[in-house]
Amino acid sequence: MNIIPLPNSYRNLPGFFFVTENITINYSQELKPTADMLCLFLEKTTGIKPKQSQYAMINLSLDFSLEYEQYQLFVDTLSIHLAARTNHGAFYGLQTLKQLLTLKDGRHRINCTFIDDRPRFSYRGFMLDVARHFFPKNEIFRLIDLISFHKFNVLHLHLTDDQGWRIESELYPRLTEIGSKRNRTSSRKRKTQDIPHQGFYTKQDLKEIVAYAKSRHIEVIPEIDMPGHMNALIAAYPQTSCLKKEIEVRGSFGISDITLCPGNMDVYQMLTEIIIEIIDIFESPYFHLGGDEVPKKHWKKCPLCQKMIKDNNLKGENGLATYFLNYFGELLKAHNKIPIIWNDGVDSDTAADTVIQHWKPFTRKKTVKEINHGRKAIISDFLYLYLDYPYSMTPLRKTYQFEPIDKNIRNKENILGVEAPLWTEWVPNQYKLDYQIFPRLAAVAEIAWTEKYNKSYEHFINRLDSFYDYYRRMRVNYAQGKEFPPNIIKRCFNVLLWLRDENNELQKKK
Known about the structure:
Blueprint: E1 10-18, E2 24-27, H1 32-46, E3 51-52, E4 58-62, E5 71-75, E6 80-84, H2 87-100, E7 101-104, E8 107-117, E9 123-129, H3 137-149, E10 154-158, E11 160-161, E12 164-165, H4 174-177, E13 181-182, E14 197-198, H5 203-215, E15 219-226, H6 231-236, H7 265-278, E16 286-290, H8 303-311, H9 316-334, E17 338-342, E18 355-358, H10 364-372, E19 377-379, H11 382-385, H12 396-400, E20 415-422, H13 430-437, H14 440-449, H15 457-473, H16 488-509
Parallel strand pairs: 2-3, 2-4, 4-6, 9-10, 9-20, 10-15, 15-16, 16-17, 17-18, 18-19, 19-20
Antiparallel strand pairs: 1-8, 5-6, 5-8, 7-8, 11-12, 13-14
Helix pairs in contact: 1-2, 3-5, 8-9
């Protein structure tokens, strides 16, 4: 069964179904979008477009006994039957059919099989940071095609950070006039740092991205990271920081100690207007507020911040950070959105219905405690699921063997699913983007879709060999030869470098 992610229940049958000139198709009207995609795929791949017929070789039918994302696929030598409760489920059956189609001796064929399949987790996400390096709309479309083929259903766009603001705002035009551009960019390879970078999405661009993703059954979650990681906004509107001084959009990476001023009510008003301006573009029930890596040293000397702490009886600067995020969480809930924050932004006073996204190393116990107390969580464990780190630090096997449900978690239903982030500080183009994502995203796909008891790394890499054919057809610059762990010395060296950088950032925060 050369399918990724591996179906959760299947039985191989003898023989093949051959795609011939007289192939026909019939479908329930509710499944027409998937049927149209199937016809287009067959025409493009085999040169043969199925004709519609009441008595057809390919049948797509509704089955209300199945679950929302479940599909059943039966292939014998004469016919193909794909059943699903929803077009959503049928779409996943189509992705499986795409992989089953092979060319042998000049004939296109599909192995006879029976598959009854559904995902392990309802949330299967990929995050792209477009703030550090901007990727145009057409590149986002290509990524949507690729992640939907892997049966992901969430695209999380990290749209703002110190190095760039990527969302058009008519109310605050300086966000793109100034905030979407930087004069220099740090590079690991180039000695010079005077390379400018710019770009942003218009509202129309974002609407098109959301619509394209929806056609592939992917919801787009926007992230406006606050109150830290906001140098691009502050460069455009200096009065929003505690220092109230002019700064540049940041050209270097790491954590800036300049943040928004959470004691300034004008900041709350501005962000409220920005969120309301764009919120209806995104159909997802979720909206990400960031909340990670927030240095608070300027808050300690800021009269407005100290007054806010005193007036609201908050627990110091940490309590102020929670107050700030809860404020915008309430705003989102008033607009029927569920707030998400990174797990280092959560504390005992964080609103109970705020979802946390676990990423930070050595904070697992705290996250487990939150989950066991009823909080919903998305798992994006840095040491396994961050796609921007080198394969020598996070090899393919390590990613594949990650188990998101900790043995200490009692309320497993509170884990919504998993998400693999790609941060783009050192990812300036599509070539590097592909290399970092693939094939590790195939491993994450199997974590998210395939039940733990069905997984085997050896089986996975055998299936991956045929999966690479699809990457080559899509002209994906996947990382080749990364199926086996690298030299242990090289791995240890990369981990030590990371620990050094983490310690440096910790000292900066202090």
